[in-house]
Amino acid sequence: MDSPQSLFAKGDKDLQVMKAGAMLKKVKSKSWKKQRHFRLQEDGQTIWYKSRWAGTSHSTFSVADVEVVREGHQSEVLLSVAEEFPADLCFTLVFRGRRGNLDLVAESPSEAQAWIRGVSKLIQNAESMDDKERVDQWIWDWFQKADKNKDGRMNFKEVRTLLKMMNVDMNEEYALHLFTLADKSKSGCLENEEFVQFYKILTERKDMWRVFQDYSRDGQTLTLAELKDFLRQEQQEGERSWEHAQELIDRYEPSETAKKQGAMSIDGFQMYLVSPEGAILDPQRLTLNQDMSQPLSHYFICSSHNTYLMEDQLRGQSSQEAYIQALKRGCRCVEVDCWDGPNGEPVVYHGHTFTSKILFRDVITTLGEYAFKASEFPVILSLENHCSVEQQRVMAQLLDTILGDMLLREPLDGLVHQELPSPHDLKGKILLKAKKIGSLEESETLTDEATDEVSDEAEPESPSAENLSAEAICLHDKKSKFSRELSDLVVYCKSVHFHSFEYSRLHSKCYEMSSFSESKARKLAKDTGTEFVHHNSRQLSRVYPSGMRTDSSNYNPQELWNVGCQIVALNVQTAGLEMDLNDGLFRQNGCCGYVLKPDFMRNDDSFDPERPQDRDGYTSLQLSIQVISGQQLPKVNQKEGSIVDPLVRVEIYGVSQDQAKQETSYIDNNGFNPLWNETLNFIIHVPELALVRFVVEDYDKASRNDFMGQFTVPFTCIQPGYRHIHLLSKDGTAIPLSTLFVNVKISEVQQVDGHVPHHGYSAV
């Protein structure tokens, strides 16, 4: 049995070189360079490596986990050893998610090229696989794992082991029944096609078959009319259901006979429901579909805090790679903490801590190279300036020379308007956010230097690393000077101290913005939510994590989105619930980093997130989610006999009245195809702000449940009807073939005497 990748690898010279293996140097730093034997395994997708001293122990990774291959000195690590190793020997494997890069040095340029080309081809081939090829690859992977003696056949004992590896605890009698059905040759072993048949029997979707049967009169196919009825009644597609039915048959029906008859078989039906069109997230919302011509203040903006850090805030590594990762994720606001460095070169690090230092010059070079690879819309460079006037001038010069035309230096048409320009107007531009001498309207006849507070994040809550400098300044009543050169580069993001909403309403300009600690922002949101919403309709607000979060943990961004804060900065290097919400919100609109706020947060309406029912045109919705089944859920414990007991929890994040969660019961010993058929109901008061998070956990009665997978989707992007939810790992990467099957119904809530019925859900 050959996998699609192994067949591809057989006829390629570069991949044959990789299969033969090579001694490559793995480089972690100037002082850590060690020889490792690397080779591509027979499956054509797993790379195996070990040191010569490691005995039988070794490591592996899948080519599917590699996003791109960089050639030459294109990482900080390889740049640091550039004098020792020429560029034509060096390459970097960049992994998906938050996994660190793998920097390698070959023994010859030809060997390096074979690996660079080979891995690139494997990545391209994996990405171009169709659904059938992906399933074939999946089947082959399981066959390889279960074929312990590598004889290309599987006996019943190996099949029993395989079932446990696949998260299935099946009684021996039924397992033997399936084995016998697949063993057409009666040899007592499953070979190539017999194993494929066994896998197909194992993965039969009775849950989808029942749905199919509800609409198929003959039980074999859905006619065009029957498919149209399904789309109209279940998928709530309305008028376009007839046209769409024909499109689905043309796109997903594998049988040419059924196609000619204008019908869909169960195979075509299943292919449709597991495709992006059958997903819970409307694929049309994944494209750039929002109005991008409104003022910047009318958008939520994907934002990173202390972007230079790869880890914690006290001893973590500062790295250009952290900027690359943030920009790749769609972040449109990144932060730079600048301090005086040696030889007149400003450095970037978390001041008054043991975090490592990188050159400001290198950060800006990285920004110039990667700013617009994931999105063409503007990037805000949030500058925390702790430098002397002399090194500020160096910063201004570096910004000017490295960024060139990308850097916005003056108002777009030479005029200062009453509202900010739009993301569309600012495409391809980098905006500097920092303190500024004077205003945009002034003729700028001030002196070449001015004094102001050192740090924008100067609202100390505790003696933390975050604001030590600000506290020291306050205690000694010192002021820091600003250079004219750096000040002149600040246009639409002038940092100002926040006094009050009344003061801002009377005196502030649209291009002036304030930064708030998470606790200050939360207090303002709770006490004066309506005023905060109104303020944010005209001016930008940035919120940053507490300095006490030295572990780089995050706060819940939803509370600040509820009052319209645009730049809710998170530690993007830290996976978890908060980043799931952030990724969920910004997954829409082409992952461009900008999401248009609801209209009631952009106009003069008085919206109070604590009293949403007071809003004009208020209508609440009922969200009903039938959790039907799960498919091929991941194992938490990799021990061979360990099988999960999965449950599904649905969590709603939004205004305080919408915060809720409910969960299903758990299923004993079945992560392969658990069946729940349980319905969870929620009332949503502000659907425009709500996020729905689906979490799968392994139930443990003795300790905390283990996380298995999740998917977060904006309520407004949900497709109703029978849908699959494609699960993501804690790191936000896809878990192959791991899904939930649900039926989603959305309806208006009938109010009784002006009140919405309360369902008593538990708060998140």
Automatic annotation (TrEMBL):
Gene Ontology BP term (one): lipid catabolic process
Listed cofactors: Ca(2+)
EC number: 3.1.4.11
EF-hand domain: residues covered: 134-169, 170-205
Catalysed reaction, written as an equation: a 1,2-diacyl-sn-glycero-3-phospho-(1D-myo-inositol) + H2O = 1D-myo-inositol 1-phosphate + a 1,2-diacyl-sn-glycerol + H(+); a 1,2-diacyl-sn-glycero-3-phospho-(1D-myo-inositol-4,5-bisphosphate) + H2O = 1D-myo-inositol 1,4,5-trisphosphate + a 1,2-diacyl-sn-glycerol + H(+)
Membrane topology listed for this record: Peripheral membrane protein
Gene Ontology molecular functions: calcium ion binding; phosphatidylinositol-4,5-bisphosphate phospholipase C activity
Annotated Ca(2+) 5 binding sites: 698-700
Keyword Repeat appears in the UniProt entry: yes
CDD domains xref list: C2_PLC_like (cd00275), EFh_PI-PLCdelta4 (cd16219), PI-PLCc_delta (cd08593)
Swiss-Prot/TrEMBL keywords: Calcium, Cytoplasm, Endoplasmic reticulum, Glycoprotein, Hydrolase, Lipid degradation, Lipid metabolism, Membrane, Metal-binding, Nucleus, Repeat, Transducer
Segments of this protein annotated with the region Disordered: 442-467
PH domain residues: 16-124
Major enzyme class: hydrolase
Record: residues binding Ca(2+) 4: 643, 645, 669
SUPFAM superfamilies named in the record: C2 domain (Calcium/lipid-binding domain, CaLB), EF-hand, PH domain-like, PLC-like phosphodiesterases
Amino acids binding Ca(2+) 3: 306, 335, 337, 384
Catalytic site positions: 305, 350
Keyword set includes RNA-binding: no
Biased segments, Acidic residues type: 442-460
C2 domain mapped to chain residues: 601-729
Domain PI-PLC Y-box: residue ranges: 486-602
InterPro entries found in the cross-reference section: C2_dom (IPR000008), C2_domain_sf (IPR035892), EF-hand-dom_pair (IPR011992), EF_Hand_1_Ca_BS (IPR018247), EF_hand_dom (IPR002048), PH-like_dom_sf (IPR011993), PH_domain (IPR001849), PI-PLC_fam (IPR001192)
Annotated glycosylation sites: 185
Full protein name: Phosphoinositide phospholipase C
Species this chain originates from: Oncorhynchus tshawytscha (Chinook salmon)
Gene for this chain: plcd4b
